[in-house]
Amino acid sequence: MILNKDRALKVAEFLLQIKAVKLQPNNPFTWASGWNSPIYCDNRKTLSFPAIRTYIRQGYADAILEHFGKPDVIAGVATGGIAQGALVAQELGIPFIYVRSTAKGHGLGNQIEGHFEKGQRVVVIEDLISTGGSSLVAVEALREAGMDVKGLVAIFTYGFDIATQNFADAECPYITLTDYDLLIDQALKSDYITGADVDSLKEWKNAPDLWKK
């Protein structure tokens, strides 16, 4: 879900400007899954640009307050959501924790790091949603620890149907600051891509496992 289209287009513009998102429909990337992809997204780059980092931090905070209300705790998903989550927690003046993909193999064996209490309301911070799998592992870990997960906020989603279904099945609402469709609109508007590229980019989103096989 996108709450603010003007903000979403501005975030998309920033991601393209700093090359946090690269679009190469004619020279695709290969993902770890083996899929060919016309897009590569690395939202960690936003942390290197103070003005953009601030805009995104405030966007996260506004989205949380507007849709979920002020939670008791912010939880970042390791690793991309840790820095973003800490910034958002600072913006809101509330505690921060983070969630590993699996429990630590030594020491206390924690999967959730930081102080929290059962029953606390928590919003999860992620940087990117593809299928939603890693995000929902964190959601489940928080729920198993007795926390009340209000939802998740991320910077960007590819908009795959499987992600929408996975979040629905987990009964976890989510918001993103921008998404793939709006990014394509902004890229075309700013002449980052041509009209001829748009069809290929849309074909990938509809069938990413089959695109350019």
Explain what this protein looks like in three dimensions.
This protein is α/β, with parallel strands linked by helices. It has one domain: Rossmann fold, CATH 3.40.50. 41% of the residues lie in helices and 22% in strands. The protein has a 6-stranded mixed beta sheet with strand order 7-6-5-8-9-10. It has a two-stranded antiparallel sheet with strand order 1-4. Strands 2-3 form a two-stranded antiparallel sheet. The longest helix is centred in the first third of the chain and has 18 residues, at 50-67. The chain is globular and about 55 Å long. The two termini are 31 Å apart.
Structural class: alpha/beta
Going by CATH, the architecture would be: 3-Layer(aba) Sandwich
Largest sheet, strands/sense/barrel: 6 strands, mixed
Q: CA-to-CA gap between the ends?
A: 31 Å
- The helix count comes to 7
Order of helices and strands: HEEEEHEHEEEHEHEHH
Count of separate structural domains: 1
* Helix content class: 40-55%
Q: How many strand elements? A: 10
What is the 3D shape? globular
Unreliable residue runs: none
- What is the residue-mean pLDDT, rounded to a whole number? 94
What is the name of the CATH class?
Alpha Beta
The fold-level CATH name is: Rossmann fold
How much of the sequence lies in strands comes to 15-25%
Rg, please?
A: 17 Å
